[in-house]
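thought: user wants a sequence for this fold. calling inverse folding tool.
action: design(structure=
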């Protein structure tokens, strides 16, 4: 029965796209507190969304228990450094080239502290992106907005207004990358 449960949980873990297993975390770290995400970009509301996603993913993946700092073994500090929209591809227009695809890139400084030893497990800058076009909805823009290999109607989570959806994608990917970073530190 144990083997069966292990096999099932391995399948579930791999399906979620996280690289490492909980067993690889340092043994003395059981909990994490997530400091309020600092936003140094002019993008409104981005820090709240990032904080919520990270907290939800940590809880749903059962990586570490999320607690207040006074009882936590570790602390996560995230600072959004920039949110930038840049042209990614152009199409030839009549008189000048037009942007066909934009990429919104989120850059964040991420530090995970070991509060029991007062030192950082890691301190790094992580970037993520989401793509959008000039159409009304990302479900019909012929762009793989989240880079998962599925485009438009083939991708069941590819819909919504362009820039907003691309930013959501970038926030989700950033959160996933941060969790992967935590679980692959050891
Ligand atoms: Ca896609
Ligand atoms: Ca699309």
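)
observation: tool returned 186 residues.
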């Amino acid at each position: 029965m144990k083997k069966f449960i292990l096999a099932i949980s391995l399948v579930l873990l791999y399906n979620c796209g996280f690289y490492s297993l909980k067993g690889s975390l340092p043994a003395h770290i059981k909990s994490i507190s997530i400091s309020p995400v600092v936003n140094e970009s002019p993008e409104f509301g981005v820090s709240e969304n990032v904080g919520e996603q990270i907290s939800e993913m940590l809880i749903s993946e059962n990586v570490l228990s999320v607690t207040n700092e006074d009882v936590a073994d570790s602390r996560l500090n995230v600072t959004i450094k920039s949110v930038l929209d840049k042209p990614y591809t152009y199409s030839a227009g009549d008189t000048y080239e037009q942007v066909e695809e934009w990429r919104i890139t989120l850059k964040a400084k991420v530090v995970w502290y070991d509060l029991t030893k007062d030192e950082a497990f890691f301190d790094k800058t992580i970037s993520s992106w989401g793509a959008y076009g000039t159409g009304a909805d990302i479900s019909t823009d012929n762009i793989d907005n989240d880079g998962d290999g599925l485009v438009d109607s083939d991708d069941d989570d590819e819909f919504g207004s362009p820039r907003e959806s691309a930013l959501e994608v970038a926030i989700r990917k950033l959160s996933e990358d941060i969790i992967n970073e935590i679980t692959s530190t050891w």
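thought: summarizing for user.
answer: Here is the designed sequence. Strands lie at 31-34, 38-39, 65-66, 74-91, 98-114, 119-132.
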